[in-house]
Design brief:
This protein has about 525 residues and is mostly beta strands. Helices cover about 0% and strands about 45% of the residues.
Length: about 525
């Protein structure tokens, strides 16, 4: 198998400095706020449920995943994989003792969830505006008590991609009072204008938004003395001579001592959109982000910088990836490929194991990984790793299989499959190729290698990925000696996401039975 020694990414250098990225995970379109001594950050999750991950930090460098905002997307199309849709670029705000998250679903409308306890239950998604094409929504409560919503548009849904509009909302943030006013058209200067976040400082209204597209783009700041403009514009962060593309949309946070910081993402292809932190200083009421490096007067992203001065030193935080499945609930690192159903799994049927049932696809499609809703996924959190799962197959129908996968528009998995011959299983290495990535899409799967093996009470599956996104699979009868499947595949990003680690149990022939597989553990080394 490939040489895949773990290179865990740690942002905190331990000497009062940090290195970017602060998170080497696919936390796309991040937004962050400060509430007292605590920082909270959210990101897009698209069609993966639970969705809109919520992270907490004490120093803006070390982050811990603490909750999810969305437990279900309340539309039947999300009961099946609906790739490329779902929760796009949410914004989080704290107002009058309540946390609010606003999010645009590009095909359904603008939605809001709120809570007084970010660690507890968030309210079900409430529809603020029903329609198609409004995305990247951000609320703003002004000093006079009026509330507003700034948003962009999804070109793929409504043919608009250069405009920012502002609507007035009811003060409770539950509905709009108008259909909006265009406050900027970036057709000439800032094409593909999206991801706006709104602030007020020193009497100015600010809208911070990326333009120019994800990889080749830049970060713009707009300011005005009036909510509806006219707005001046200035590019405040760009790639310059660095290797940080974008740098793309994010959120501004100001410390109690006045320090300014900006979180944003960088697109690293198959690894997704990872999170960076830039220092911000203010000059003549304009923000300057990052560091001047090439003499053009515009900030570029920093690689290493002094940590935010929060007054205390906090421990290094490492992302949760491995799971012993010894708790009554799934770990926060896991999300399903569609709205989850309890009949897909159990953590109590065989305590200390995650039991996945060999599900069929009720959408009357071939039961391919791309189409299967009952796929359990987690973010890849570093460039190089080994992931190993211990499985106890309990199959009863031909076609029952359990698998370990790397998802994406080209995906791969290794599976244990029951062919109907008692006492034997086939080990299969499968590649999936996605021809249409939107919604249900179109995909085909090809069996690259099949090896018949004697069935065992327990078997182990492993995937190793190297620093270049190339990966290989192996299997074992004892958890120590692994047999290389003999193939190398290349990871590829998914529909607006990076590749993900995944496990699943399903019947490849779409035959319903009572088969299942117990996963005793999932270790990421």
């Amino acid at each position: 198998m490939k040489d895949c020694k773990n290179h865990a990414w740690i942002a905190d250098l331990g000497d009062g400095r940090y290195q970017n990225p602060i998170l080497y995970g696919d936390y796309s379109d991040p937004d962050a706020i400060r509430v007292g001594d605590d920082f909270y950050m959210i990101s897009s999750s698209f069609t993966y449920i639970p969705g809109i991950p919520l992270l907490h930090s004490k120093d803006l460098v070390n982050w811990e995943l603490i909750n999810f905002v969305v437990r279900e997307i309340p539309f039947p199309q999300y009961d099946q994989p609906n790739h490329g849709s779902g929760t796009w670029a949410p914004a989080i705000r704290y107002h009058d003792g309540t946390f609010y998250v606003y999010v645009g679903l590009p095909d359904e409308g603008v939605f809001m969830s709120c809570t007084t306890d970010p660690y507890g239950e968030w309210s079900p998604l409430h529809c603020v505006w029903e329609g198609k094409g409004w995305i990247d929504t951000c609320p703003f409560w002004d000093d006079d008590g009026k509330a507003y919503l700034v948003h962009g548009f999804a070109n793929s849904r409504c043919g608009i991609k250069n405009r920012l509009d502002i609507c007035e909302m009811t003060p409770d943030g539950k509905s709009l009072l108008d259909q909006g006013t265009m406050v900027y058209n970036g057709l000439q200067d800032h094409p593909t204008l999206e991801g706006p976040k709104m602030y007020k400082r020193n009497g100015y209204y600010y809208i911070m938004a990326p333009a120019g597209g994800v990889k080749p783009g830049w970060q713009v700041c707009f300011r005005s003395k009036n909510v509806y403009g006219p707005y001046e514009d200035r590019i405040v962060l760009h790639q310059g001579n660095t290797d940080i593309n974008g740098p793309h949309q994010g959120g501004y946070v100001e410390l109690e001592n006045g320090e300014g910081w900006f979180v944003h993402f960088q697109d690293v292809y198959e690894y997704g959109r990872i999170v960076h932190l830039q220092p911000v200083i203010w000059k003549q009421d304009w923000p300057f982000m990052g560091q001047e490096q090439n003499g053009d007067g515009i900030g570029e992203p920093v690689k290493v910088w002094k940590k935010p001065d929060v007054g205390h030193k906090y421990p290094v935080c490492r992302p949760a990836t491995s799971d012993e499945f010894d708790q009554p609930k799934l770990g926060l690192q896991w999300s399903w490929q569609a709205n989850p159903r309890q009949e897909w799994y159990s953590l109590t049927e065989n305590p200390g194991n995650l039991r996945l049932y060999a599900a069929v696809n009720e959408a009357d499609r071939d039961n391919l990984l791309w189409y299967a809703p009952n796929v359990l996924t987690q973010l890849i959190q570093t460039r190089s790793f080994e992931a190993t799962a211990k499985l106890i197959p309990r199959f009863d129908q031909a076609g029952d299989k359990a698998l370990l996968a790397i998802t994406g528009l080209t995906y791969g998995y290794i599976s244990l499959r029951y062919e109907g011959e008692p006492g034997y299983l086939s080990v299969e290495c499968v590649r999936g190729d996605v021809a249409d990535k939107e919604h249900t899409g179109e995909a085909v799967e090809t069996i690259l290698r099949r090896i018949m093996v004697p069935a065992s009470d327990a078997m182990w599956l492993k995937v190793c990925m190297d620093q270049n996104g190339e990966y290989s699979f192996g299997f074992s009868f004892d958890g120590d000696e692994f047999i290389d499947i003999g193939l190398t595949l290349k990871a590829r990003a998914g529909a607006w996401t990076g590749a993900k680690l995944a496990i699943a149990c399903l019947n490849g022939d779409n035959t319903q039975g009572d088969g299942c597989c117990d996963f005793e553990y999932f270790h990421v080394e």
